Amino acid sequence: VAVLAGFLSPALAQHSPSAAWQSTGCDSFGISEAPESVKCGFVEVPLRHAKPHGPSISLATVVIPAQTSQAEPDPLFIAQGGPGGSTIDTFADVLINQPGYRPVLNRDLVLWDQRGTLHSKPALLCPEIAAADLQAVQANAVELSEAQQMQPYIECGHRLATEAGDLSAFNTVENANDVAAVAAALGYASINFYGVSYGTELGQYLMRQHPELVRGVILDAVVPTSFNLLTDVPFVQQRIGEKYFGGCAADPECAAAFPDLGSRFLALLDRLDAAPVRVEVRNPDEADGTAYAVDLDGGLLADALYQALYMQEMHSLIPYLVDRADKGDYQFVASVLLPLMLFDDTMAIGMYVAVVCAEHGDTDS
Fold first, then answer.
1. Which residues contact 295 (CB under 8 A, 6 or more apart)?
2. Average of pLDDT values for 295-314?
């Protein structure tokens, strides 16, 4: 932080933001200790880029200046996945306060929350769905009908349509056009783009729609444009499970410590589906430490472990966690993994659903 304080990148200094850029304090994005050189603000863009004088939305944007005196003029834009994940919430604090984690030092880094996500306005957040999901796992024995499962989505959709307007404008085509608009607002003639997961699909749209803007693209954990977020994910989960447990069986140390882990895992899921185990889960953001009684079935455990694989530090722990759960010890699952799933209020589920409906709405139910 001391190195960055008061330092303005030559790359950023030679660009003049347009009237579409409005500065704001970085603390409004939950960024804890940003030096003055880091610029935070909103970029105003059209809700539909084909109608530049129509309704507009505001994209939360953070510019982290290059850390060298010979900075390149083209920045690196960084895009989180989801769709619906927050780039700023995921990356900003680490990249600002721990320069060693930066992918490049000689270029500005531009983080923006994609339309509909956490810090942008409007944000398509759906607390109705999160609350319903929590209630569902608290009463696992109650089988919800399809209509009951859909009700919180319908409620959130009606509310967001009133608050945000035309939800069909929250799609990847407009999302890619936003990238070009943000670059123009910040005065960049050319950019580099890094996208992870859904961010890779966004990068492919960007290359198609704005090839003149893009100098280089990095696609990390690629989502092909043909990938169906509704029907293809279970095949991915199956493939990951086979590779993971097959890898343990092929590794002498893992196989010796956790024999037959794959078959034990599947048997564990069946047992939990037949007889869910009640565990106590606490929301780390609630000061009173309220304990929520949650029925852990096989589906919930599988989802928790799948989400855990997104965190690199969890990879080597999965065999141990499965082994402990198979032996009746669910402490780590209940205290660490389930809170990450059940109490995450940063994911814009409305944006996720809007993109899925726009791109895969013809999928047979």
1. 137, 138, 139, 140, 141, 276, 277, 278
2. 92
For residue 111, the SS3 value is strand
Provide Rg for the chain, Cα atoms: 22
125 contacts 345 by C-beta, under 8 angstroms: yes
pLDDT digits (tens, 9 = 90+) for 131-174: 998 888 886 545 778 898 899 999 999 999 999 999 999 999 99
Helix axes 349-360, 172-186, angle to 10 degrees: 120
pLDDT at 180 (0 to 100): 98
Give the three-class secondary structure for 61: strand
Residue 244 has pLDDT above 50, yes or no: yes
The answer to whether residues 48 and 174 touch, using CB atoms and an 8 Å cutoff, is yes
Helix %, strand %, coil % for the chain, to 5? 45, 15, 40
**Gap between the Cα atoms of 245 and 326, Å rounded:** 15
Residue 219: strand pairing partners? 195
Ranges of beta strands (E only) in 176-324 are 191-196, 214-220, 277-282, 291-296
pLDDT in tens, 83-140: 999 999 999 999 999 999 999 999 999 999 999 999 999 999 999 999 998 888 886 5
Residue 241: both structure tokens together: 């499970």
Q: Which one, of 27, 73, 65, 63, lies nearest residue 43 by Cα?
A: 63
Q: What is the predicted pLDDT for the residue at 321?
A: 96
**CA-based torsion, 155, 157, 159, 162: positive or negative:** negative
Return d(Cα 53, Cα 62) in angstroms, integer.
Answer: 25
CB-CB contact of 295 with 333 (8 Å) = no
d(CA 344, CA 226): 29
- Between CA 188 and CA 194, with CA 189 as vertex, the angle to 5 degrees is 70
Task: Report d(CA 229, CA 240) in Å as an integer.
Answer: 16
